[in-house]
Each structure stands twice: as C-alpha cells, then as structure tokens.
Design goal:
233 residues, alpha/beta, Rossmann fold, binds flavin mononucleotide, NADPH-dependent FMN reductase, oxidoreductase activity, FMN-dep_NADH:Q_OxRdtase_AzoR1
C-alpha cells in the first residue's frame, strides 16, 4: 500500500512515532513518502486568491505540487500533528489553508474521493481531539471518503518521555487501526459527502461561485448534471 505522510512538525516526537507505527504496519519503507512541515512547505496563504483563477498561479505552487502529487499517487494519507493550544500545529494549519481550493465548494479533485486517511494527534494532558477535528474537517471537504483518527494524551513532551506501558498500549491501538485500513480496499463515499456535493452542485448552478472558473470546472466534469467524481473510478 502506498502511503503519503504529512507531518505538521519537523521533529520526530510522539506524534511522528505513532504515525510511523501505523504506516510501518501497513507498508514497506519504499512505499512510504513523508513530508515535514514547515520544512517542505514553509509558507502561509496570503489570501491573494490567485489559486482560484489558476492553481499554478499560487506563489507556492511548485513546492505544493510536490506534496499534492505524492498525495495523488498514494492509496492512503496519514496526517500527524501535535495538539498546540487546542488545535493543530500552525504549520499543519498553514498547509490546510494552502489547499483551500480543494474543498468541495471550489474545485475538488476526483482522486481525493478514492483515498483513505488517518489523522493522528497527541497532547500532553488534553485536547488531541481538537487538533484532529480541524484536520478531519478539511479532509472531509476535500472529499476523502474514509477517515479514521487517533488521539492520545501522552503526558510527555517527546517520545522518549512516554512511559513504556503507554507505548505498549499505543502499539496495540495501532495494530487495531492498521487492521481496519488493511480491510478497506476501495472506500465508499458516504451519504453525507454525496449530500454536500449535491448542494455544492446546486450552488454552482445558481452562480454562487467564487469565480466563473469554478463553474466551468464543474461543468466540464459534468458535475452540474449527473456525473460524480466517485463514479469515475
Ligand atoms: C506550542 C505548544 C502548545 C501546546 N499546547 C498544548 C495543549 O493545549 N494541551 C496539551 O495537553 N498539550 C499541549 N502541548 C504539548 C504537546 O501537545 C504534547 O507534548 C505532544 O505530545 C507533543 O507531541 P510531539 O512529541 O509530537 O511534539 C503543547 C506544546 C506546544 C509546544
């Protein structure tokens, strides 16, 4: 299984190690591609809206494309981020912002509707679920049909500080999670995604686009009528 991992941090702490535990149970080393943020995409969205008119006009397109190409080629995506002040890391959030045209209200990519994804977060004491929720929301609106998450309070500021019994529990949890992913070959698009997509099609039909480019994008794909990205597989 090809896996692309997006780490919302440069360092290899608890969150990284848990993400890798999962990946290593599902794929061999040469099937795993990793990106570290901000190392591999050190930018914030400036709100210039150039990407709405033409994705290649994003000032950071070249760097971004290396990551999105790897995401497209992967069967599974793994996002890792520590909980920073009850949300994802700033670099993970910056990455999600730079992907905003991938949202269903704009120009979602067909290939997203084929992916399975895991979102992993850790916190020292509380709040991993807040970081997860934020990342999961983007993934859902990108169209990813199968998303599972794992959050844990590690009572530590790095992996070396995590107690042995907790590491054993984490390993067991990753075995369970890996089994779930291994069983899903072709994730099915759920009713909620279908409904959101339908509403977005209605919105584009009614001219509620951010730019005419969006309507054209939907029209060319037949999405304003009966075509759907998940039927193309
Ligand atoms: C900027 C910053 C903010 C943090 N905010 C929280 C927090 O709100 N709640 C919490 O329990 N831990 C918080 N932590 C602790 C980390 O979430 C926790 O140690 C996590 O396991 C670190 O993951 P890592 O080893 O992958 O870096 C924060 C740490 C940093 C550096």
């Amino acid at each position: 299984m090809k896996i692309t991992m997006i780490h919302g941090q440069n360092h290899k702490g608890s969150t990284y190690h848990i993400g890798r535990l999962l990946a290593d149970k599902l794929a061999s080393e040469d099937e795993i591609t990793e990106f570290f943020l901000p190392r591999d995409l050190n930018h914030f969205c400036m709100g210039c809206y150039q990407c709405i008119e033409d994705g290649t006009k994003c000032p950071y397109y070249t760097e971004k494309q290396i990551i999105t190409d790897a995401m497209e080629k992967a069967d599974m995506l793994i996002f890792t981020t520590p909980n920073y002040c009850m949300g994802p890391s700033a670099s993970m959030k910056a990455f999600l912002d730079l992907m905003f045209t991938y949202w269903m209200p704009h120009c979602p990519r067909e290939w997203m509707f084929t992916k399975k994804a895991a979102v992993i977060s850790t916190a020292a004491g509380a709040g991993a679920k807040h970081a997860i929720k934020n990342v999961k929301k983007s993934l859902f609106y990108w169209g990813v049909p199968y998303i599972k998450s794992y959050g844990i309070n590690v009572q530590a500021s790095n992996w070396a500080g995590v107690k042995e019994d907790k590491k054993i529990k984490i390993d067991k949890d990753m075995n369970k999670l890996a089994r779930r992913f291994a069983h899903i070959e072709r994730p099915r698009v759920c009713i909620k995604t279908k409904l959101v997509f339908f509403i977005m099609a209605k919105m584009h039909k009614a001219g509620g686009d951010t730019s005419p480019v969006e309507r054209q994008y939907w029209e060319e794909r037949g999405w304003l009528n009966k075509e759907r990205p998940w039927k193309k597989r």
